[in-house]
Amino acid sequence: MKIAIFGGTGDLGRGLAINFAAAGHEIVVGSRSQERADQAAATLREALPEGTFTPRENVAAAQEGDLAVVSIPWEGIESTIPPMADALAGKIVVSVVNALRFGKNGAIAEQGDAIGAASCAHKIQDLAPEAKVVVAYNNLPAAGLQARHSLGADVLVCGKSKAAREEVIELTSAIPGTRALDAGPLANALILEGMTALIINLNRRYGGEASVSISGLESAPERPV
Amino acid sequence: MKIAIFGGTGDLGRGLAINFAAAGHEIVVGSRSQERADQAAATLREALPEGTFTPRENVAAAQEGDLAVVSIPWEGIESTIPPMADALAGKIVVSVVNALRFGKNGAIAEQGDAIGAASCAHKIQDLAPEAKVVVAYNNLPAAGLQARHSLGADVLVCGKSKAAREEVIELTSAIPGTRALDAGPLANALILEGMTALIINLNRRYGGEASVSISGLESAPERPV
Known about the structure:
Two copies of one chain form a homodimer. By secondary structure, the first copy, chain A, is α/β, with parallel strands linked by helices.
């Protein structure tokens, strides 16, 4: 599959790009300018020389990708998404965007009023109304992901379209040691996004890099080792 | 410890009451009327004959408890909490209250405007301003808890007061197969509450009763088996 990644220089976006490329997907690295896209693709190629990373300006990347992953800072949603809205129509857009602020007691998940929508994913959906927005991957351990460790993590997937959720669940098999689970409607996107704040606070308190996993589900697939 | 439980007839409140009593805590069962409290205590005694369950009207229960657990339906916060506010002053109040609605696509976590506060826990804090509100236990598997199974679950604890979080972490050793982790400030209470919606949707999709656990933390205590 051709996967367009926006924000492929952030820790999580970079980790996803490397893992998807390692699994044989072609990554289209989107950025605001061709020059920045070239730089981002070169950095990704250093991390995974056998990967295919094609640099493009954002709109061209959105056009080329069969599926898009949005991993930009949340403050950038309003300026980044509208120019790509037409190109994203009908496509799955995976949002890994989290709206966090950092107080003296730790990371705090922003809520509706501060975001200007029920979640970052909802905001993307509002600005690209024909896209099939899915939330996933927000809570993966980014350093382990970049290093292509087997993560021992479950990926909860929320989205309006069940078919889109299932496609993202299938895509997740590219990431070693993860299992994706269908967690239902997009309405709970804020919860998935906000779990990142909890995880950051756990990492600060106990050290290391937390992974979330789920046990006790009868008919869920096994998590690969 | 004397633990006052409000809403001890719900699945989660009942499960917590049984486990805390089994660990030797004295449970004060609070209800709107003495008669309802008597019934609730009798039902708990059937489940755990060796437990101590003392029935009291809400305000008396709040006065007697060293610590309180609020496990009422979220629509009842506004009528239930204010009469107890003085009795709860200075005490730890553990909220396991979740604001959920059920759509045709599954459980959905309500957000600020619908709740009338940043979370159910915030609403309790607003109405009992001198209490030390802590959020925990929202996501435990209630059937397994009632059956006193070893849960294999982690309990994430959020609250304003670090000392109060630590006391709740210690209290959690009463629940077999769980480990409590300090997840930071109360500001993220909505995320813990909303995870219950995700878990309900996973349970519906895959069957069984999901438990959440965290791996990868360096200095966290081991989860007991």
